[in-house]
Amino acid sequence: RFYTPWSLWSLFDIGGAVFLDVGRAWFANGDNGTTDNGVLANVGFGLRLVSQKAGTDKVVHIDFAFPIGAEGDISDVQFLVKVKKHF
User: Fold this and answer.
1) What pLDDT, in 10s, does the model give residues 9-44?
2) Is there a contact between 68 and 39 (Cβ–Cβ < 8 Å)?
3) The whole model's pTM is what?
């Protein structure tokens, strides 16, 4: 994660993140979109927007994730937008 000195129209402070997520998921008698080892992984980057006007307890996460080694109907690129209480 990193913070920048930039702001967007004096409404949002701008930050960013680069990430690697690795984990195991499984469903009884179902396909979880993984290879034989059952591990899901993705790499990605994203923007973090913190409101200058509405308090700093809500952070908008805008992320692009790229699954590694996924099979089946999992997209090559995932676009995610969330609001969380942390960076």
Assistant:
1) 877 888 899 999 888 766 666 665 555 566 778 899
2) no
3) 0.66
Sheet holding 12-24, edge to edge: 2-8, 12-24, 39-51, 59-68, 78-84
What pairs with residue 64 in β-bridges?
Answer: 45, 79
Residue 19 corresponds to which tokens in the numbers above?
A: 């990430």
To which residue do tokens 């999992």 refer? 74
Among 38, 35, 62, residue whose Cα is nearest residue 48: 62
**Amino acid occupying residue 50:** V
Whose structure tokens read 């290879």? Answer: 35
Q: What are phi and psi of 86, to 5 degrees?
A: -145, 165
| CA dihedral angle for residue 41, residue 46, residue 18, residue 20, rounded to 10 degrees | -10
**CB within 8 A of 20, min separation 6: which ones?**
41, 42, 43
Structure tokens at 68: 């590694």
